Each structure stands twice: as C-alpha cells, then as structure tokens.
C-alpha cells in the first residue's frame, strides 16, 4: 500500500514528465505568435536542416584557394593568371556523367515526347557519335558502339554540346524532385505512367510545380506535417518546406577547379581547442588533382607497388596512349570507366584526364582578373518569368517555365547591376570599348564556354586543374564530357553548425 504522501509525489512526477513531453511551439521573435499553430494563423516554418545530398553528388566544403596557373605556361596563352578567390560550399558529381545515365535521359524523352510534333526535341538531345571520325584514322567501331553498347555503359558520355549538358541538368533536377514528392506521398505514383505515355507538356517540372502551373496527380501522404491556415493537411509542397532539392546545374569554373584540387587533404583538422577546426593552411600547391600522399608517381611513402603507377588517363607522348603490351600504363586507349583511378581528396574521380569537362562559364582570357573574388563567374543573363500569356499559360511546349530577359529600363535605378545581359560585361560590351570579331580576328565569342580537366587525348600539361580551354556551346568533341553540380544552402559546414564564432554570455571565473 502506498502512503498518501508517496502517492502525491508520484502524481506530481508523472505530471511533470507529461509536461516535459509536450512539444513547445516555435515562436516568432518579432510578433510573439506561434509558428505552425492553426489558432495563430498557421504560418508554417520548417526547421532548419541540412540539404539532402542528391543522387550521385559529393559535398564539397568551400574555402579560399589560388585559382589559375600552377606551372609554366608552355602554351603561351597566359589565360589562367593566378588569383586568390573564395568558393562557397556546394555539391558536385562523384564521377563524370556516363553513357547509361544519358541513355536514361533519352529513354525518358522518347516516351514523354513520343508525338511527332516533338521529334526535334529528341533529335536535338542525341549525342553526336560522328565526333569519333577522323580522315586518317579508323574509329568506325566507336561511332557505332561507344554510346549504345553495354560494354561502355559506365564510360563517360561524349559528343554532347554545352547546351545538351545544360538541358540534361534541368531534366535531372525534375526527375529527382518528382521522385522526392512521390516517395513522400505528395504526388501519386500513377503520374509517372501518364508522363511516360506521351505526356508531352504535362510532365513534372520543378519551377512549373512551384508556380502552380503544373498539378500532376496530388497524393495523400501517410504522415503530413504540412498544414494550411485552418490546420488542414496541405499536399502542395512549397520550396520553403525544405522537401525539394536545389537545381542540378553545370559547375562554375571556380567550383570545378576548387573541387579538382581536393585541398581538404592539405588542411588536417585538429581536435584541441575548437573541435574539428583545421589549421587554415595550404602547404602544397599540387600540379594535378591528386595529392602527394603515397599514391603518386613521385615517391612511395607506403609499402606497396603504387610507385610509378598512372593515376589518370592521358597521352604520355606522341603515339603513346596506353603503354606497351603486357605493361599497359593507364590501361585505356580511349576513355576509361568513370570510376577508374584513385579519387582525389573530396572523393572525386577523374578530375584530371579521361575526358575534359564542360563548365558553366563563358570563356574570356582575362576573366580571372576582372571577376568577383567570391564565387567568380562569367555568363549571367538575368531573366524573369514571361507573364504575357497570363496564368495557366506560362509554360513552353516542354512543360518548362518561359523566361525573358529583364528590361534594362527597369534596372536603370539599381546600384548593383544595370544590364540584364552580363555575358560580355567589361570585355566586349559598350563600357569596355572592346569588340570581338568572331571568325575574323578571334575565335572567342559570347557562345564560347570553358572546358577543364584534360582528356585521354591530352599531354600532361592539360591535366592541371588550372589549365583552361574553350569550345562553342553548340559544338562537341570525343574528348569532352561533363558532370553536374548543385548549390548548397545555409552554413558552409552544413546546417548542423552555426555561422560565426559563439562565446559564452558570461566570462568564466578564474
């Protein structure tokens, strides 16, 4: 038998434990009203959380580095002058996009845009297999089989223009986000069957969905934390709900070069004092994307037979693409599989060699000098949604939102930019008094895009992350492929950590 005093004590403890289990609502610092409370308007605020790493991506923590040349400019271009810049954190593909990935893209186009009116869409997406041809070389087997045969499934796709790579990124964004909504129950899985049965314009596009131009087939999620103002379940997702991923895109030149260097290996993290904060040192400016940690051909610091082994797929000299029979060096006459060779500090494969890669930037020889020193990039064309068709008619024939350049007259009073077309800003525009006579005095134009990384057909000089070349965005090559990137939002170390240095409110007594 429990005494009355003991019963009372247990009752108080139980009530305290129940009160502690009651979830306290987040409250606005400016109004004092509760968030996510139907009795206070139901303003929904998702908790800050780190962005989910999309399929195929690797997180790259940003920082400062010297962008540009790391060795003698043997080509005499002097288009990669060294300059200190900072790159914010981002995601990038672990490997180059492979043939099987691009065939998945074409398979989707073939089914969604099966109507004859979309024939140009499919034809315009196909890679140019004729890039393998040469007047004085026998490459017809590669023309016929390299892209389609299963033996080359996980070899990097080539013959893809910059424009085609750009469109692939849009398609990939939409498929990943559509998958997220289906997995969480906000879109019915039957929507895929409708799309793949000649859906045409009525296919999922992230921007169209967020603008309310695409409805699809809304689902009924089993667990739905989203509520409207009356507290009823909401099955239309907004971007601020934190469910949809950012866009896949081509990496900027600065991002690509930073990721290629893998400098995280140069900055060991210490555990004394501030936890996991590195020493803020860059002790070695390596020439290629791998670091001298025992896996290079300079010396072997660990017991084994790595000394002298090739760590990239490149051309050692004229007529020497893979060594001699029985002693092949990189074991690849042409491109190798996308996971060949040893990954760099960020875990990225083939950032030096195999195939060169498209990046987002428009090429200019002196961009490194002129661009911003944080997230430098040339190629901006500032656009807005074309509202001329009215609501319900804002999409193009492929289901994507229609955009038009911002009007320069509307930007006249802005301080940070006055022109929507910034591709040739300070280098070819009216302010610079520079003119590019494409095909007459230069091969550079506003359609010239930067190519990075060196390929199976290049000498070692081009394998350096700082080296750069260019090609017109509507051209392709048997030596050029690509990989995708994604912006990381929030704190550069991940949203589990706060920005800045935080100190106790009161000093500790000594």
From TrEMBL:
Record InterPro entries: CTDL_fold, Sulfatase_Mod_Factor_Kinase, SUMF_dom, SUMF_sf
Keywords of the record: Lipoprotein
TM ranges: none
Residues covered by region (Disordered): 491-510
Domain named Sulfatase-modifying factor enzyme-like: residues: 54-371
GO MF annotations, alphabetized: formylglycine-generating oxidase activity
Keyword Lipoprotein: yes
Record bears the keyword Metal-binding: no
PANTHER family reported for this sequence: FORMYLGLYCINE-GENERATING ENZYME (PTHR23150:SF19), SULFATASE MODIFYING FACTOR 1, 2 (PTHR23150)
The protein's name in its UniProt record: Gliding motility lipoprotein GldJ
Species name: Deminuibacter soli
Lineage: Bacteria, Pseudomonadati, Bacteroidota, Chitinophagia, Chitinophagales
């Amino acid at each position: 038998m429990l005494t009355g005093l003991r019963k009372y004590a247990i009752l108080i403890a139980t009530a305290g434990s129940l009160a502690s289990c009651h979830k306290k609502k987040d409250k606005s610092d400016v109004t004092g009203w509760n968030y996510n409370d139907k009795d206070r308007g139901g303003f929904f605020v998702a908790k800050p959380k780190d962005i989910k790493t999309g399929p195929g991506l690797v997180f790259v923590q940003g920082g400062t580095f010297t962008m540009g040349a790391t060795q003698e400019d043997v080509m005499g271009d002097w288009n990669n002058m060294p300059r200190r810049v900072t790159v914010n954190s981002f995601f990038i593909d672990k490997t180059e996009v492979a043939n099987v990935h691009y065939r998945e893209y074409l398979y989707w186009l073939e089914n969604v845009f099966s109507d004859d009116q979309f024939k140009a869409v499919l034809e315009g997406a196909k890679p140019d297999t004729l890039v393998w041809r040469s007047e004085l070389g026998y490459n017809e087997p590669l023309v016929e089989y390299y892209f389609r045969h299963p033996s080359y499934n996980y070899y990097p796709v080539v013959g893809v223009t910059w424009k085609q790579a750009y469109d692939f990124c849009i398609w990939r964004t939409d498929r990943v986000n559509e998958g997220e909504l289906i997995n969480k129950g906000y879109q019915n899985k039957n929507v895929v069957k409708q799309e793949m049965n000649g859906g045409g314009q009525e296919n999922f596009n992230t921007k169209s969905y967020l603008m309310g131009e695409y409805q699809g087939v809304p689902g009924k999620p089993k667990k739905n934390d989203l509520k409207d103002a009356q507290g009823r379940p909401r099955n239309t997702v907004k971007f601020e709900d934190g469910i949809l991923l950012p866009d896949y895109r081509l990496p900027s030149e600065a991002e690509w070069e930073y990721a290629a260097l893998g400098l995280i290996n140069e900055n060991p993290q210490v555990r004394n004092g501030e936890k996991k904060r590195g020493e803020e040192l860059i002790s070695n400016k390596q020439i290629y994307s791998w670091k001298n940690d025992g896996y290079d051909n300079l010396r072997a610091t660990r017991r084994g037979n790595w000394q002298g082994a090739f760590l990239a797929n490149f051309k050692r000299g004229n007529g020497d693409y893979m060594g001699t029979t029985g002693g092949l060096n990189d074991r690849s006459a042409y491109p190798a599989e996308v996971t060949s060779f040893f990954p760099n500090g960020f875990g990225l494969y083939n950032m030096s060699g195999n195939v060169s890669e498209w990046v987002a930037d428009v090429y200019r020889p002196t961009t490194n000098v002129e661009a911003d020193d944080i997230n430098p990039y040339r190629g901006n064309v500032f656009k807005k949604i074309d509202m001329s068709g009215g609501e319900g008619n804002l999409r193009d024939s492929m289901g994507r939102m229609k955009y038009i350049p911002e009007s320069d007259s509307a930007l006249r009073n802005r301080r940070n930019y006055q022109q929507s077309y910034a591709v040739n800003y300070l280098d070819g525009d009216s302010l610079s008094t520079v003119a590019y006579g494409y095909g007459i005095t230069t091969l550079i134009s506003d359609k010239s895009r930067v190519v990075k990384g060196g390929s199976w057909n290049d000498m070692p000089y081009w394998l350096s992350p700082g080296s750069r070349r260019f090609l017109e965005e509507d051209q392709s090559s048997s030596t050029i492929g690509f990989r995708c990137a994604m912006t990381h939002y929030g704190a550069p170390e991940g949203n589990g950590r706060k920005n800045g240095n935080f100190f106790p409110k009161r000093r500790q007594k000594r």
